[in-house]
Structure formats: structure tokens, C-alpha cells
């Protein structure tokens, strides 16, 4: 008889795709704060789609999430618990380090009821990483074609781009802070490439 000893498997848990290289990334950070990498595996992510012209629905989302969905292209809005990232005219990514995606989804469905919208938990498909420090834009620019200068990519703006050969969503936090949302299967590759990109400029006195 199978499983006669009634062994119970451990409950599944969400683990960062960067778990295996966490120490390696820490060792290659800058001790003086010029460049740092912070992996954030517990960020809940949902894709929300709805008409940008449905004012009542947007008001209901704002009452539940504490933020309004951004309508200007390539921008994000930041609330106390949730960030809403514009992905297209009728599509946003909701990110929260406080609420699990299943809670965001449940709150939205409860508040909105049946209607013409969709909300999907995509947490397991992505990971979130924050780059910070004076040299962060220099490091990111070695693999990302965006103009990362403050005049072209200001705080509160976002873009879908590439980092080396991986698709990423980049959010500008200001003061040399960038959040990258990366597909899970590319996360380790992107982090190792950024580590290598930092090496040539580690000792150089460069500014973006």
C-alpha cells in the first residue's frame, strides 16, 4: 500500500528565485552605499484590467486600494500599501509588500462585484528587486536602453523595457532608486549580469 507510514508533505511555500545567490549579491554590493541590491520576494502582484473610462469602477478601486489607477502612460501611483503601475490604456499591475495578491484580489472582487474587469494573481511569475545608490543608474544603464537621467525618467515614471536580454518593468523611485519587476525565470540571470556590470565602474569616479 502506498504511503503506509502516512508521511505528510510540507506545505508549499513561495521562495524567491534569488535564494541561491543571495549571499553572492550581498558580497558584491558597495560598502559605501554607492550601489546596493535588495531582493523583495514577498511582494504581491496582480494584473488588473478595466476600461479607463469607467469612473465608478475606478472610484471603487481607489476606495479599496487607497490609490487611484494612473491614467497617464508610463506612470505609477504609490499609496501607503499598494503601488499601481500603468502597463497599457486598460491594464495595470498592482504591487504590495503588505497585502498578499490573494487578499488584493479578494478585496477588489468583493468591492466591485460582477462587472467588466479582470484581476489575476501573478505573484508566482515575477520577482521584485530594488537597485539604489549613486551608481545604480550607471549599473542599470549598462544593460537597459532607457534614458535613466532624472530629466527623462523622473520619480513616479515607469517603463517596460529590457535589462540585457530579459524583459523588465522599471519604476523610478528618485534619488538613484529603481525597482525592477522581472519574470521569475530571468531573475537570477539579470542579477548576475548587473553584478558583472558593476565591476568595471566600482572604482571609477563616474556619475550618470
Task: Write a structural description.
- Pfam families: SoxG.
- This is Sarcosine oxidase subunit gamma.
- It comes from Bordetella flabilis.
- This protein is α+β, with helices and mostly antiparallel strands and 208 residues long.
- The strands form 2 sheets. A 5-stranded antiparallel sheet has the order 1-7-10-9-8.
- The protein has one domain: Gyrase A, domain 2, CATH 3.30.1360.
- α2 (55-65) crosses α3.
- The chain is built from 5 helices and 10 strands.
User: Looking across the biggest beta sheet, what order are the strands in?
Assistant: 1-7-10-9-8
Q: Largest sheet, if any?
A: 5 strands, antiparallel
Under the CATH scheme, which class? Alpha Beta
How far apart the termini lie comes to 66 Å
Brief sketch in words of this structure:
The protein has 208 residues and is α+β, with helices and mostly antiparallel strands.
Topology summary:
Elements: H1 22-27, E1 36-40, E2 44-50, H2 55-65, E3 76-78, E4 83-88, E5 91-96, H3 101-112, E6 117-121, E7 126-132, H4 136-141, E8 158-163, E9 166-174, E10 177-183, H5 187-198
Antiparallel strand pairs: 1-7, 2-5, 2-6, 3-4, 4-5, 7-10, 8-9, 9-10
Helix pairs in contact: 2-3
